[in-house]
Design a protein that fits this description.
- It contains four helices and five strands, in the order ββαβαβαβα.
- β1 and β2 form a beta hairpin.
- It has a five-stranded mixed sheet with strand order 1-2-3-4-5, sandwiched between helices.
- It is 39% helix and 22% strand.
- The longest helix has 15 residues.
- It has 125 residues and is α/β, with parallel strands linked by helices.
Length: 125
């Protein structure tokens, strides 16, 4: 399931995934992403993974890919919060082929991820 994370800065949108994630879960994501892009002209996105990428159904992966393609020119900053080395490696690869900045933060760095995603801080690697 995917739930929206509330009480975030207005220039970003965030979600928490847990358990099995299906194609239907992306209805909320697509709606909120579209609203943010319409309001700000760019996409600052945070995803907190409380599960494994293996918990995403095939339909969910297709919807996730379509989200990326639909908003390809709008991606600005995307934070993935996970303690998984696999997610870190995938995000590093993905960031080389997508516009915008993508970073992985450990679960105990949620506040720093929000600050970076909302453009409150910059992080140089």
């Amino acid at each position: 399931m995917i739930e929206q994370i509330h009480n975030l800065p207005q220039n970003m949108v965030g979600f928490r995934s847990s358990g099995e994630v299906t194609q239907d879960d992306f209805k909320l994501v697509n709606k909120k992403v579209s609203e943010l892009v319409e309001t700000t002209g760019k996409l600052n996105y945070l995803l907190f993974l409380d599960n494994s990428p293996a918990d995403f159904t095939f339909g969910a992966w297709i919807q996730d890919a379509l989200l990326g393609i639909k908003n390809i020119t709008k991606w600005n900053r995307a934070a993935i919060i996970s303690d998984s080395e696999t997610v870190d490696k995938f995000t590093s690869f993905f960031s080389k082929i997508m516009p915008g900045e993508f970073k992985v933060f450990r679960k105990d760095n949620m506040a720093r991820a929000v600050d970076w995603t909302s453009e409150k801080i910059d992080i140089k690697e």
